Amino acid sequence: MTDLKNRILKTDASKATILIRLIVGTVFLSEGIQKFLFTEMRGAGRFQKIGLPSPEFLGNLVGIFEIICGILVLLGLTTRLASVPLIFIMIIALATTKSEVFAEKGFWEMMHASRTDWAMLLGSLFLLLKGGGSFSLDYFLLKRNNAKIK
User: Fold this and answer.
1) Separation between Cα atoms, residue 101 and residue 126, nearest integer Å
2) Which has the least CB within 10 A, 1, 60, 78, 118?
């Protein structure tokens, strides 16, 4: 069990990773909250407009994942694990919302419209690969667990 916990908490000692965590966590937390505050523009209404099935359910589900995973990323707690749903959310967002922009307005408009999506996708991938960094609860818990083992 300790080995599994260590693999989930695994992180490097980078101090700069907190910058990636702050932007990724804040954006996802904010977007998740907005899915409940502005359901027509950001939640179920938006999901219905782009043709996703069960828009009410999916809007709430995505909002909940964005809030929970955003908080976990901000805290640096199970950062690598929390980044996985965020990666899927961003891939689906790019595929469902930006392909239409590409088809109607072309490559450069699609690139402009998707700049935040790409930043969140790549930031989440970075966190999956590197972990939460030295200013994270992951780092603290990993150090504490390893101290107990020795």
Assistant:
1) 26
2) 1
Distance CA 101, CA 110 (A): 5
pLDDT under 70 in the chain at which residues? 1, 147-150
The predicted structure's pLDDT at residue 145: 79
Helices vs. strands in the chain: H and E counts, helices first: 10, 0
Residue 35 near residue 62 (C-beta atoms within 8 A): yes
Measured CA to CA in angstroms, residue 88 lies from 21, 68, 127 at distances of: 17, 15, 14
User: For the packed helices 79-93 and 115-130, what is the interaxial angle rounded to 10 degrees?
Assistant: 150
Q: pTM score, two decimals?
A: 0.91
CA dist 5 → 41, 104, 110, 127, 130 (Å): 39, 47, 40, 17, 16
> What's the confidence (pLDDT) of residue 1?
53
